[in-house]
Design goal:
The chain is of the alpha/beta class. It folds into 2 domains: 271 residues, Aldehyde Dehydrogenase, Chain A, domain 1; 178 residues, Aldehyde Dehydrogenase, Chain A, domain 2. It has 15 helices and 23 strands. Helix 1 packs across helix 7, helix 2 packs across helix 6 and helix 3 runs antiparallel to helix 6. It is globular and about 75 Å long. It is an enzyme of class 1 (oxidoreductase). Belongs to the aldehyde dehydrogenase family.
């Protein structure tokens, strides 16, 4: 795959803008410079908001047919140019070519779902006559676009998670300003190109690249921005909530996801699913499996199979079709996770396999006997590490699963229906996957968590609902229609 070293431009209000001040974008596998992108200033953000105000007038005036056509056209453009999008993801992110190919397919699906859901933004009637004195009134509720949406996106899904914010925003008739992750801004720029090609009116979409400190504060604090959609870390999310003011927020802030394996489970299937769920995208996945609780009678068998399967994973070039695990997003992040592993080992944890680092590449690591007070047990590791521990019962597994500040998704393997329903009702998470790991998502489902994992739900339909407001309409008639 050929390397690209280009000076990219950012999109503000329909214009492609270059700047002298820029930031470098590197391939995390090689540390090679692959591109530069503009480093936007606060003034650029204010300009983007002013153009978005004009863009919102245009987007809110688009018919449902026009919104649908634009979204479908953007999806088709990406499909026709899939190799470019795959190459971009592989170059700038941690993803292998197999993982990048899957993300491009999902992006296309997300945009097509957005096009379909644009047709289903529906209201409801209100029975005013239920209250004495209102017999002459009839009414209904309909949804209207909220205005300007600010979308702040992470590095781990640099195309599809951007689509999950742009697609619903456009479907609902809003304008949207995207601030992509500084480490992976190229996929967002390519996505913007698809929308320009699809005929999106000027001002409806901006992609503002650069450093978070220059962009995020003026973006989330501005009164004309009516909705902030953020995917990222808990501390940043907490800071945004303190600065945003009175406006709607949607946040996905990560997790420390557990999966429970009971004695009656299919161990072979459980191992396969949780290995994939723990180590895909080098573990940099908000619903990736981080903790596995195995009923004691099957623990040794499960652990032996798990370690064997983990050792078979191939670490290597992202462009190699046989590669299972690529690099982490940076050597800095790989060093952080390595430090957490070493801390746990020094506290008494056992490293069953992995734990070694070479630059940004970290071996898939299996830990046991991990103290619950260790950093890696309490926090979201966001790296290729999994903790496997024995439990005496389902009750113990649920209690230990819930001992976290996060609550995004969990999984359980069992053939017992009552145990499955017990887990569904007692696990404190936004999603519970039965006979699957925590790492299950389709782009139409409501996706989000509780506690420190965030606010609200993504998933196309649910994002559209969040990005719209409800308006009550009442007609007072001369006489009651019921008389």
């Amino acid at each position: 795959m050929a390397k690209q070293i280009v000076k990219e431009r950012m999109l503000i209000g329909g214009r492609w803008i270059a700047k002298k001040d820029s930031i470098d974008v590197y391939d995390p596998a090689t540390s090679d410079l692959i591109a530069t992108v503009p480093a936007a200033s606060t003034e650029d953000v204010i300009y983007a908001i002013s153009r978005a105000k004009e863009g919102f007038k245009r987007s809110s005036s688009l018919s449902v047919f026009e919104r649908t056509k634009i979204l479908q056209s953007a999806a088709s453009y990406i499909e026709e140019n899939a190799d470019i999008y795959i190459q971009t993801i592989v170059l700038e992110s941690s993803k292998t070519v197999k993982e990048a190919r899957k993300e491009v397919r999902r992006c296309i699906e997300t945009l097509r779902l957005s096009a379909e859901e644009a047709k289903r933004i529906e209201g409801e009637t209100v029975a005013f006559s239920q209250m004495p004195g209102h017999e002459k009134r009839v009414g209904y509720v309909y949804r209207f676009p909220i205005g300007i949406v600010a979308a702040i996106t992470p590095f781990n899904d640099p195309l599809n998670l951007v689509a999950h914010k742009i697609g619903p925003a456009i479907a609902a008739g809003n304008a949207v300003i995207v601030k992509p992750a500084s480490l992976t801004p190229l996929s967002a720029i390519r996505l913007a190109e698809a929308f320009i090609h699809a005929g999106l009116p000027d001002g409806v979409l901006s992609v503002v690249t650069g450093r978070g400190e220059a962009i995020c504060n003026p973006l989330v604090e501005h009164e004309d921005v009516r909705f902030v959609s953020f995917t990222g870390g808990y501390e940043t999310g907490k800071e945004i909530t303190s600065k945003a003011g009175v406006k709607k927020l949607a946040m996905e802030l990560g997790s420390n996801s557990p999966t429970i394996v009971l004695a009656d489970a299919n161990i072979k299937e459980a191992v396969a699913a949780t290995v994939e769920g723990a180590f895909g995208v080098a573990g940099q996945n908000c619903i990736g499996v981080q903790r596995i609780f195995v009923e004691e009678s099957k623990y040794d068998d499960f652990l032996d199979r798990y370690v064997l399967a983990t050792r078979k994973l191939k670490i290597g070039l992202k462009t190699d079709e046989l590669t299972d695990i690529g690099p982490m997003i940076s050597e800095k992040e790989a060093k952080r996770v390595e430090k957490w592993i070493d801390e746990a080992a020094n506290m008494g944890a056992t490293i069953c396999c992995g734990g070694k680092r070479s630059k940004a590449f970290l071996e898939p690591t299996v830990l046991t006997n991990v103290p619950e007070t260790s950093t890696i047990s309490q926090n979201e590791v966001f790296g290729p590490v999994v903790i496997i521990e024995p439990v005496q019962s389902l009750s113990e597994a649920i209690n230990r699963s819930n001992q976290t500040e996060y609550g995004l998704q969990a999984g359980i393997f069992t053939t017992n229906l009552e145990d499955a329903f017990t887990a569904v009702h007692q696990l404190q998470f936004g999603g519970v996957m039965i006979n699957d790991s925590s790492d299950v998502r389709i782009d139409s489902m409501p996706f989000g968590g509780i506690k420190g994992s965030g606010i609200g739900r993504e998933g196309v339909r649910y994002a559209i609902e969040a990005m719209t407001e409800q308006k009550v309409v009442a007609f007072k008639l001369k006489r009651s229609p019921f008389s």
